[in-house]
Amino acid sequence: MKESLINRLARREATIGVVGLGYVGFPLLLRYLSVGYNVLGLDVDPEKPRKLLAGESYIEHMDAEPLMVAAQLGRFDATTDYSRVAECDAIILCVPTPLNRHREPDLSFVTDSVEQVAAHMKRGQVISLESTTYPGTTTDEVVPRIEAAGLIVGTDVFVVYSPEREDPANPDFTTHTIPKVCGGATPACLEVGMALYGSAIDQVVPVSSTEVAEMTKILENTFRSVNIALVNELKQVADRMGIDIFEVIRAAATKPFGFTPFYPGPGLGGHCIPIDPFYLTWKAREYGLATRFIELAGEVNTAMPDYVIAKVVSGLNSVAKAVRGSHILVLGVAYKKNVDDVRESPSAVIIEQLQGLGADVAYSDPYVASYPPTRKHQLDMTSTPLDRESLGQADLVLIVTDHDDFDWELIRRHARLIVDTRGVYEADGAQIIRA
Length: 435
Description:
By secondary structure, this protein is α/β, with parallel strands linked by helices. Helices cover 39% and strands 13% of the residues.
């Protein structure tokens, strides 16, 4: 069973199923198609399969036309019908793992997907979970659900965990050039997992267990969260001292060893860094441990929108204006520059707080035409064109996301007052205020 599956994967005769067609699943579809596999995409949202089959992309930096062409050739299909899992040799799960309102892991997307997949699995398949989660998820949540369907993991079917490492819109690293960590539920599972990813990814890094692979992703994102919290805190200290923290970081980054530059901002965003460390915090409690360092970093990062609001209030006060009744233009609502992803973006919190204080708030973002509803926020807003008129009407321009598409010279010429959370401009104490 194992050797037959490995051979099918090596000869590219296997069909790859991808469950969850978002920022992780979409590029995986394209990669496996590009190296010669037949691919099936599955998603609970019927609009995603429809758009992909029509060559329509719903992610700014992704091109769906190759999928439409592959569909016409019979090499690609997309559906909401989980019974078609039976057609696949490999099933890769790329579903969300959010936090609930108590900041505890919500694995419902994973467990629901596994149960739907397991109902249609057959002998000789491999299933891989890529969703970021706490150590033990694959062993405790995935394996039992598959074995409950009467399949023996490691003999009949194979289970691996391989965390996604996508960085949307990063021109230097793509799906196949980013090394892929892979852990198996059994040694046989790892062999199959290496065959699954080795044919599509330039470098696959095997580890001894699914728990090690799960912990690897948590470490990566906790490392970033803690270091971003550090520079966010240092930014506030430097501001009180009249020191430009961005200049400090640039200078420190000239050290060729022992330093990695991280940059402050208005708060964390995206599906990974604001969420993943709390998966480990929650799991650590099971072992009687308190992850104080991680929780403190979370507190610092979560408080950054409040710091930005304070800077806006102070800036308006400096020109004898109150927040109530003022016109504020927010530049950028995506969580990072040059993408259209607003998940966990601090922009929503900042906009809601400003509106709560009585401000008239508009936003401009070339990647986000209308603010999509999220689990936490329902902002009924559309993007305002960025021109002399919209800049001139604003009492204050607040830079939240520093998209390369923005005309920064135009903004500087026509904005009355700028609060800059991204270090775009040199602070001048009058027109431009660092936040």
